[in-house]
Amino acid sequence: MDRSASRPEATDRSFGTTPLRTTPTTGRPEPPAPPAIPPGTPPCASPATVRLPVARADVDPTAPAIRLADVSYAYGTSGGSRPALAGVSIDVRSGEFLALVGANGSGKSTLLRLIDGLLTPDTGSVEIGGHAVVGPDPGVGLVFQEPRLLPWRSTLDNVAFPLELAGWTREARQARAREMLHLVGLNGVEDLRPHQLSGGLRQRASLARALTPEPAVLLLDEPFSALDALTRERLNVQLQQIWTATGTTVVLVTHDVAEAIFLADRVAVLAGRPGWVAGEVPVQLPRPRVLDHLDAAAVSSAASGIRNLLAADGEGIG
Predict the structure, then answer these.
(1) Neighbour order of strands in the sheet with 131-132
(2) Residue 275 carries which DSSP code?
(3) Cβ(189)–Cβ(216) under 8 Å?
(4) For residue 41, is pLDDT > 50?
(5) 199-211 vs 229-246: helix axis angle to the nearest 10?
(6) Cα distances (angstroms) measured from residue 225 to each of 82, 174, 197, 209, 231
(7) Cβ–Cβ under 8 Å, residues 272 and 260
(8) Domains of the chain
(9) Which residue intervals of 184-312 are DSSP H helices?
């Protein structure tokens, strides 16, 4: 039996919900109060839209936001098993932007599903905020390559859907959804259905939906890979601004070395089949980053380091 079917991998975890407070009189969820605006808020995020991830009382503030310790995983097949990861250990600091780069079949997407709790490791452990991951975590958002918006819902109602599942009132969830649409640069499309949006706009809506429950960790599985180069560049700039505004811990899977360097603080390289961590490359670029930074010497140095790690194991990115 294929173990990958034992958990809802096809479910977009941007539908995840965050535990909410309830009012004593009505029992209805109460939207979390907005925190103070962090210094250096970028122009794309107005003060009305900026919120930090919800602080969970059970999170160990001294622990990494994400910790994978000697993690291995194999998919069950009719002929036995197909190893996907072997002995992977990675720590991700709170608020860090980490990129995972590797060839097809090196286990990058599997790694995200293990972090999210959609899969359970065969050996080793996965922790978020110092606590073992034992299933899908409401404090984690996962965005796939395809937006997976509900076709019969408006853009606004798609973005508000996680809060609807959590029991928020219609007024409260739509107000929060409008904030997130503004944060990702989607204004004036609230009433449109997914088929009326371009690919780039649909992916922005998917990102807004993932951010609506204020996740502490955001996992991105090649979210812009199907878009044209110009749209992808614009969304990468905007994603950096959103990350700066929210302070969310982000793990991005990508095949694009330049994209990884532009967005990340650090790039982890997965190699082999099953995948293992061949090495890590820090990105020495100032923030906020602009596209002109891709011409900097630091980018060439980081790109060479990443490609050398891939080449050392006979890997490459097509």
Answers:
(1) 80-92, 66-77, 123-128, 131-132
(2) B
(3) no
(4) no
(5) 20
(6) 26, 29, 17, 19, 10
(7) no
(8) 10-18+56-148+217-312 (3.40.50.300)
(9) 199-211, 229-246, 257-263, 297-312
Query: Which pLDDT belongs to residue 138?
Result: 79
pTM over 0.90: no
How far is 45 from 242, CA to CA, in rounded Å? 7
Considering only CA atoms, which of 66, 149, 59 is closest in space to residue 100?
A: 66
* Mean of pLDDT values over 93-103: 95
DSSP code of 3? Answer: G
Side-chain half-sphere of 118: how many Cα atoms within 13 Å?
21
Closest by CA position to 202, among listed 214, 212, 192, 216: 192
Are 246 and 52 in contact, with CB atoms under 8 Å apart?
Answer: yes
Task: Look at residue 126 and give its three-state secondary structure.
Answer: strand
Region of poorest pLDDT, from 26-30, 167-171, 244-248 = 26-30
* Contact (CB, 8 A) for 111 and 37: no
Residue 126: both structure tokens together: 């996965």
